[in-house]
Structures are given as C-alpha cells and as structure tokens.
Amino acid sequence: MKAGPEVVIWSIPVTKGWFKPTVVQQQQITTYRVIQGSSYLGLELLEDIIVINQHRVSNSNFTSVGGYSTRFGIGSSKSKTVGDVAFIYEGKPTFIFRQIPDPQGVARLAKAARKRILQNKKAAEKMNKALLKEEQRRERYQKAIIQEQIIKQINTDKFVTWQSNAYGVKINYPSNWGFEKNQESSRFVVFKSQLANRSDIIFESVSITLLGLSNESPQQIAQKSINDLEKNYHDFILIESAPTILAGRQAQRVLYDIGGKRYMGIITNGKNGKIYQITFVAEPKEFDSYLPIVQKMVDSFEII
N or C: which end of the chain has fewer CB within 10 A? Predict the structure, then answer.
C-alpha cells in the first residue's frame, strides 16, 4: 500500500535531431518507480543504483561583433559532470540513464526514495504483525470463554431430550439451545446454539435428516454425497471421510468446508432401510470449541 500519492522527483527527456529536436523518451524517477519510456520498475525491487562512465565535459560559447575586417568577441567555457546511472534488478542493469548531468545526485535521489519505501514497508509490516497478534489474542480469549462455557455446560449436565415417534429417533441437546421442527422437509429438526458474542454471526447448529430408503452402506451413501458436493460447490474442501459408530450402528463421518463454514455429517442405516444423517455446522474457528457438546449429542442419539 502506498504511503502517499506518486510524485515525479526527477525527470529528463531523451531527444532526437539537431535542428528540431523531438522528445522520443522520458526518463523519470518518482517516489515509487523508475520509468524509462513505457517501461517501469518499482524502486523497492531494485538491488542497487550505481553510477558508471562518469566524466566531465566542457561547453564553449563565443559572441562576435564588428565588420568584415575587425572582429571582437567574448568567450565563455563551462564544464559539468555527466555519467550513466544504472538501476540493478536481479543482478543486472535493467534500466540505464545515459550521460545525464550530475549522475551522483540522481543516484542519491533515487536511493533516498527507495529507502523511504522500504522503511514505510517495514513499518507497515510491523503494524500488521502487531494487529494480527492482537486479533489472535482476542480470538484465543473468546475461544477460552466459549470453551469454559461449554465445559461448564457439559459438567452440569444441562441437557434435555427431544424425541420424535414419527421419525423414530430421540436425542439429547443443551437446554439453552433452541430447536425448529419442519415436518415438510427431510431435515426434520434443527438445534441451534446461542450466539457466543456480538461478533458471532453464525448459529452453530445440529440437524437430523431422513435421507430416504436405501440398501447401500453408509460409506457408499457418503461417497455419493461427496461427489454431489464436489460437482455443485466450487469451494468444497474435503477434510476427512472415515468410518464411525452412530446409535450402535456402522456409520460414516464426513468433514468438509463450504462457503466459509465447516460441516460434519454422520450417516447411518436405520430400521427398514431408513438412512439418517446428523449434520453439525459451525464457523471453522468455533468448530473445535463446540465439538464436545456436539459429540455428547451424537452419543445420545437413538433410533427407536
């Protein structure tokens, strides 16, 4: 990020022709770049700026006054230092400003501008590092508070039972969580946590879904689900797919990320070929904090 607007701090035109010279190229140094014609390079990328082929040159002027035979004149001679300024990038001179006046002064000017950029960049990196450290400290503090609340909730055993005879399941859930029933959807119940703090924007949730009837194994059903997710979501990231136990039955656990959220789905076969899935959804940074509560809910799940 630039610390201020870009300003030209040195410039000289390259001309062609003696009688009517025309500008064919501009050589410039700004507060952020060295420019030669249509090409440029950031000053912070330069490895060095050196002066070569430096020497002094003289210019003589003579003015004459008088007739054909008598000639009076005033002569003057001036000398100046010229040289080439080479801008070194990746071990070689990428740009060379040739035979310009006061090459040492131009090199000092470019080096000073480059130094300011590097100092500003270093200061910005230091500030960003401090901000990141503070943000991480706050996240650890919030996570510690959440974990303390979760451990307290688990230890005090403030869980209540939800049961559905229609779907043939029951499960224990935290008494301070809410739940929503939806008899018209395959996802027939959703348990939602309270918001942990003001910055929390996602209700951590655990839902139970009746996927339908199937004779396939939980592993086969889970793989089909993974294939569909890969096809329909470009940001799908599979973290794990592993066998587990749910309600005393063989099951498959799938862990994945989509849309900035982390999901854990556990699929198992119920009675008469019914397929059940428990899905836990949370922000990735809060996922592990809520996992003990979710695991207790999963362990309490029964097919009745």
Answer: N
